[in-house]
Automatic annotation (TrEMBL):
Organism: Salinivibrio proteolyticus
Alphabetical list of InterPro entries matching this protein: Ppm1/Ppm2/Tcmp, SAM-dependent_MTases_sf, TcmP-like
EC number: 2.1.1.-
Gene Ontology terms, MF aspect: methyltransferase activity
GO biological process: methylation
Alphabetized UniProt keyword annotations: Methyltransferase, Transferase
The keyword Nucleus is assigned to this record: no
Name of this protein: Class I SAM-dependent methyltransferase
Amino acid sequence: MWLRSRESLTDDGVIYDPVAAAACQGCVLQPECDWHNLDQTQLLYATLTSQCDAIVKQFLAQHPTAWIINVGGGLDTRFYRLDNGRCRWLEVDVDETLLWRERLFHTSERFRMVQGSVKQLDWLDQLAVPAGHPTMLICDQALLECSNREISAFCHHISRHFPQMEACLVLAGDKCHTRMGQKLGCEQYQHGFADPRMAIVNALPWACRVEEKSPLDKPCPRWRLWQRALAAMPRYRLRFTPVVLHIEL
């Protein structure tokens, strides 16, 4: 939330999140939120958020009454940014995060919270999503804290519960831990894939479509230096940062 708040107050920001900005400006912990390479980390995560937003927005344009399931989003405010007044939204997260959400955000008759995580999937049995109804699952941060095996298990469970759905996932490249990856704003993740798209294809060979987007694809002047630096190494474009994957089952 702090990174989205800072980005929203930047003149050339890639995302605008007034809810996050308002919440963070009055937070007593604000002075403790700064860390090394903050500006680049802010740009990286704001870009990933922007790319996920674009996928969800396009999905809602095609399916206005869809169900959106956001897993492990923390204090994410995507519902307030993208709500079309007709969709139904489920936030799946651990108890502590849900308590903070109740304090910071307004509830809605189309918005509810469910206890769960990407590793504890009992919440799937609590969902009341009508069979065959357009559904999208979002997981833009939580999988970065999972191992390769845990990600594969999560994908298998989700696909068995929703034979037809779309998903927007963020996975880390295998070079995120390197010096270049750290300069690009990456943190230490629990996995790394040389080819994130192929990792999903291997986990979900029946997927109809798997598309990938790198933060470096963003037409933003603040990315231009890194885009030029990696232009001579196009095969590494998806390996030095997390990437967004749009999956259709």
